[in-house]
Design goal:
Layout lengths: L4 E17 L2 E15 L2 E6 L13 H16 L7 H8 L6 H19 L3 H5 L5 E3 L2 E3 L5 H13 L5 E4 L6 H10 L5 E4 L9 H7 L7 E2 L8 H9 L4 E3 L6 H10 L4 E4 L1 H4 L2 H13 L4 E3 L6 H10 L14 H4 L15 E3 L12 H7 L2 E6 L1
Parallel strand pairs: 5-6, 6-7, 7-8, 8-9, 9-10, 10-11
Antiparallel strand pairs: 1-2, 1-13, 2-3, 4-12
Helix pairs in contact: 1-3, 2-3, 5-6, 9-11
The structure holds N-acetyl naphthylalanine and magnesium ion.
Protein name: o-succinylbenzoate synthase
EC number: 4.2.1.113
Organism: Marinithermus hydrothermalis (strain DSM 14884 / JCM 11576 / T1)
Length: 368
């Protein structure tokens, strides 16, 4: 696959609702879109980094700079037989896994299109639709939370994830569990607590949650292992798992028993498959996390979530939940808690190119 040139777009999309987590409130997303061109074909990917380093440490500005000055020049103008070769060319650059994922994921889409296969078949997918749940931001009141949970359960979502933060945790979980005694519930703290909050987690341990997601620091494993020993409820790691090696260390330490796997966080599909396989070797389920992606990132996530060990419902809910207008033509809609994988070569979605060009905050062209 000869890579010839690339276009980076910054696109701002207003969210249909305010999305509050322990690290702040979002009402829009500014996303980085890559179009990687070669042999008359185009591969697409979206970055999961944000303007500010609130989730992990990468930022849009940093990624844009690194992609334009180093990562794309390292791969353009060359012929790559497969993603593994391309990933090795990016290895000399330390960290920056979200930025590297942008290149690697667009290459997988382009490579799959050149071979005429849907991406999920090249990844080793075993299903044509994936189980989906929904991640609900922190709401203004208990009543509002209960109404929102009710609505999404009625839509068939298989799991409800509640964002929590200090001062908004036990009471909201108790109220939801009391109203919905059999619903599959999880909480996501996005690293807002410390081991000193053990009493809060002992309380949460009583509500039959599927798991408690990333309670402690975004780059920690040791304290999570201590917390897991004190609880019955499994811990699920998200921010802490940046690679297959981190996943192996986490599972070896007992820092968690479930992994929220995000292809954009770990550096792309090759690394995501390694995390998936390491977790399977430790009998730890994975599920497909979300980063409020638009249609390109969402499609990549759905293809990855077709792998066998993705057994818990993911956060790849319908795009129409988030966006009045998406960057792709296709409507990625869940039906009764299941999201069908887009058919067609590669990730199987069509860019709304004119609409993107009109709305783009910035376009950078990179040639070999
Ligand atoms: C759907 C979900 O809960 N996602 C992340 C948190 C998150 C929340 C808000 C975000 C806003 C902009 C970019 C990334 C974001 C990630 C998580 O699983 O922890
Ligand atoms: Mg999370």
């Amino acid at each position: 696959m000869k890579l010839e040139h690339a276009e980076l777009y910054l696109v701002r999309l207003p969210l249909k609702f305010r999305f509050e987590t322990s690290f702040g409130t979002q009402t829009e997303r500014t996303l980085l879109l890559l179009i990687l061109s070669g042999e008359g074909l185009e591969g697409y990917s979206e970055g999961v980094m944000e303007v500010l380093p609130a989730y992990r440490e990468e930022t849009l500005a940093g990624a844009l700079h690194l992609l334009e000055t180093a990562l794309l020049p390292a791969v353009l103008g060359k012929d790559w037989e497969n993603p593994d070769q391309l990933v090795q060319a990016l290895a000399p650059f330390r960290g920056n896994r979200m930025a590297k994922a942008v290149v690697e994921m667009a290459f997988w889409d382009l490579w799959a299109k050149s071979l005429g296969f849907p991406l999920y078949q090249l990844l080793g997918g075993v299903r044509r639709e994936v189980p989906v749940g929904v991640s609900l931001g922190i709401q203004p009141s208990l009543e509002a939370t209960l109404d929102l949970v009710e609505r999404h359960l009625a839509e068939g979502y298989q799991r409800i994830k509640l964002k929590i933060k200090p001062g908004w945790d036990v009471q909201v979980v108790a109220a939801v569990r009391e109203r919905f005694p059999t619903a599959r519930l999880t909480v996501d703290a996005n690293s807002a607590y410390t081991l000193a909050d053990l009493p809060v987690f002992r309380e949460l341990d009583r509500y039959a949650l599927d798991y408690i997601e990333q309670p402690l620091a975004y780059d920690d494993l040791v304290d999570h292992a201590k917390l897991q020993q004190a609880l019955t409820t499994p811990l699920c790691l998200d921010e802490s798992i940046t690679s297959a090696t981190e996943a192996r260390k986490a599972l070896e330490l007992g820092a968690g028993r479930v992994i929220n796997l995000k292809v954009g966080r770990v550096g792309g599909h090759l690394e995501a498959r390694k995390v998936h396989d390491v977790a399977a070797a430790w009998s730890a389920p994975v599920w497909c996390g979300g980063m409020l992606e638009a249609g390109v990132g969402r499609a990549h996530n759905i293809h990855l979530a077709t792998l066998a060990n993705f057994t818990h419902p993911g956060d790849t809910s319908s795009a129409s939940r988030y966006w009045a207008e998406d960057i792709v033509e296709e409507a990625l809609e869940a039906r009764e808690g299941w999201m069908p994988v887009p058919e067609g070569p590669g990730i199987g979605v069509t860019l709304r190119r004119d609409w993107i060009r009109k709305r783009a905050l910035e376009v950078r062209r990179v040639r070999s």
